[in-house]
Every structure is written in C-alpha cells, then in structure tokens.
Amino acid sequence: MPLYSSQNLKIYNSLSGEKEIFTPIHEGNVGMYVCGPTVYSNVHLGNVRTFMSFDVIFRYFLHLDYKVRYVRNITDVGHIVDDVDEGEDKIAKKARLEQLEPMEVVQRYTVDFHDILNEFNFLPPSIEPTATGHIIEQIEIIKTIIDKGIGYEANGSVYFDVVKFNETNHYGRLSGRNIEDMLANTRDLDGQSDKRNPQDFALWKKAEPQHIMRWPSPWSDGFPGWHLECTAMSTKYLGNHFDIHGGGMDLKFPHHECEIAQNEACTGQTPVNYWMHANMLTLNGKKMAKSTGNNILPREILTGDNTILSKAFSASVARFFMLQAHYRSILDFSDDAIVAAEKGYKRLMEAMNSLKDITADTKSTIDIPAWKQFCYDAMNDDFNTPILIAQLFEGVRFINLLKDGKETLNNEDLKSFEKAMNNFVFEVLGLEDEKVSDSSNDKLEGTVNMLIEMRKQARDNKNFALSDQIRDQLIALGIQLKDGKEGTTFSI
C-alpha cells in the first residue's frame, strides 16, 4: 500500500485562500510546474529559498510514494526589464553590457544556477525546459488565442485583450484584483502604445532593428512575451489541466494571472488545481537589493567572502536555517539567526550519529508511532517544516534519554524510530551530515591534542595564565575542553 493512502495532506491554495485536501487528478501521480530563474545574473538568495521550498515539497511527494513529474523552466528570452511589455530583454541587456552573445550569458548563469542548487543538495526536476526551446509551441498558442478573438495583432506585435477575456472569465481572480478598478486606476494610453487597453499584455513583440534575440513568426521577426513560455511548457509536459503550479509570491501578479488567462483562453478550462506561492527573504530586516548593498549571494555564504556574516557557513546549515520558517512566511536572514541555526544543526547531526549506537531493549517506554505521526501531521499541514523540525528535536530528546538509559525501545520501535529520523532529516528535508573529512579530522585532532599537552605542561609548571589562554582560545574556536580523572578530552 502506498504511503500517501494513509496520510491526509492539505495544501494552501492561493486561488481559494484556504488549505485544501490534496486530491491529485490521476491517483498516485503528481504534476507540478514551478517558475524557474531568468538566467541573466547569479542566482539570488531569495530565489534559492523559493526553489528550496519546492524541493522539499517534491521530496515529500516522493516520500509518500507518489510518482511525480516536476517541471521547472529556464527563462532565457522574453523577460523584459522591470517586468513590463516595453523595453529591453533582461538577457539581451546583459549581453550588450558585457559584449557577449545572449546564449553565452544564458550558459554562464545556468551553470551557476545548477552549481548553487547542487551545493544546497537540491534534487533535479524531472524536466527543465527552456523558453527558446519552445518558440514553436508559443507561436501556436498565440494563433489559437487570436482565433478565439482574445488576441490581436498591432504593427507586428500581438497582445492579449484582457477586457474581452473578462467578458466571460475573471481576470484577477488569483491576485484578488478587479478589472474595473485596474482600468480606473491606470492612466490613459498616450497614443504611442499599440495596446487597446492598459491591462493588455504582450504575447509576441516585434523586434526593433537593434534587438539581437529574434525569431520569425506570422506577425513579425520578434520574440515571445514573458508570460507565454510557462503556459506553453506547463501544458506541453503536464497537460491542459494539472495539479500544482508554484513560484515566488512576487509572480502572483501579473505573471501567474496572465498564465491563467492564456490557458483559459486556449482550452476553456482552469489550468491548475493548486496554486502555491513561497514568500520572500529579507536581510537584516530589510529588502535585499544590490543597489543598497543590503545583499548577499548564496556562494558568499559558503565562502565567507562578504561583509554581512561573521564567518562562512555550510550549505546544509543555510538550508536548515531556511527550513526553520514556513514557506509562506517572510524569513529574515542575519548573522545571529544563522549562527543559532548552526548550533541547532550540529545538535541534530550529533544526535543522528548517536542514534546508530543505541541498542534495543525488550520493551518500549516511548510511543514512537504517535511521535512519527506527529512528524507526518506537520508535513501534511501545508508542508510545515518548522513544526517538523520541532518534532525532530523531540526525537533528539528521545535519543539523549535512550543514551542515558532513562528510556528504552524494543527492536521494532528502535528500527522504526531510526528509519523515520533518517527519512525526515535526510530524505525529506534534504539535509546532509557535513562532517570534516577523515584526513582533515585527523589533523585537527592531532593539533588540539598537542595544545592540550602544552596546557597540561603549563599547569604542571604552575603557569596558569598560559593554561587559561590556551583553553580560552580553543573555546573561541568552538572547541570545548573537559578535564577528568582520565585526562582532558575535547568536543567541537
């Protein structure tokens, strides 16, 4: 029996504003589309948090024995600067500034994106399509929208007629907007635009002579609008009606609103059952922005090459930090917060290593099945990772009690407990036990033991000032000394 059949998963649906019981369109199968990066710069830490949220969601579906098709696109054309319909494509602008071919820009930052996600132990999606690889599909969708009377051509560009669409549908349902209010609050077109209405959005843009990214179409040599690619790729790989569409909260309007309109205009049905949106990441209580200097790249966290943090932190510590907040909550990143997360992460890993040495007893004094269900209840409640982590630390408490002989588990419960801890820590949350390599560990142990011997000699010679100095400097490095009858030991 698949695990999902015994669990009652609820997902917060942005479309309804409520948590809903998850019922897949096809039993045992999940189709999930997540908007990927526009590859014109190094991946933003906020993007990493968004993709990490959906990585955990992907992992949990797999853990529940669902067969998952996870599609996450690469935007390599069509995303205009400032998310509008007029102006320069973000990738074309970067190519012009750096005097590169656009596909050189795409290649450079796609590689960086994959490298960073590998560092943070992301599972790869099932399919990772690109916008430029689906120009033909996008042109066909535009033809259909025009044939339905909801798209129109003007001077070589094609626009989606939002007002016409809204006569039979509801544009603004996802973001809670009203088309009449939007029209009333928008300035009249100045006569220089080809749009019939201010809210209309581009399906195809005619390329100006200087525009370097262009393709032939029935209307002009040009390029597709940004919103169109996700409609083309999601429906191609998941069908006209699929389970989940996700992305950052900032994409809800206009990007996802426009996707819904395009899909409904083409197929006459709503495309997605569950819309999911991850919230933003702030830095020291403020919005992250390169222009203000309040910014840090994921790689700078790992190398320590920044002015924000006191030292470098491992990818698993950063991952653990991010998962301590619910994906729909704003999360503030700071040095104090990640230092605290590192302590919690180390406690968890130490407990996981201790768990291997615990032996079974004849009886159980801890209710493992109940604790295990609490872990599932956390994830079943809209993927609530902070509550899951709280339950895992309850598991850490169990481990310490078992080590001290204050509680016992029989063989069956011990195996179940160990499996569940490993499943949730490593398989679902995607954490890794980032131990120091054996050779480096040997060198560290040898160095600390040498200092312990020097401290002993200083104490024997009654040079307590030197003895205390060695101890204090080791503590400052995170190395604790413990004096006992058998000598001095240390822990990190």
Automatic annotation (TrEMBL):
A motif ('HIGH' region) lies at residues 37-47. GO terms for molecular function: ATP binding; cysteine-tRNA ligase activity; zinc ion binding. The keyword Nucleus does not apply. Zn(2+) binds at C35, C230, H255, E259. GO terms for cellular component: cytosol. GO terms for biological process: cysteinyl-tRNA aminoacylation. Binds 1 zinc ion per subunit. It is found in: Cytoplasm. Belongs to the class-I aminoacyl-tRNA synthetase family. Monomer. This is Cysteine--tRNA ligase. It comes from Flavobacterium yafengii. The gene is cysS.
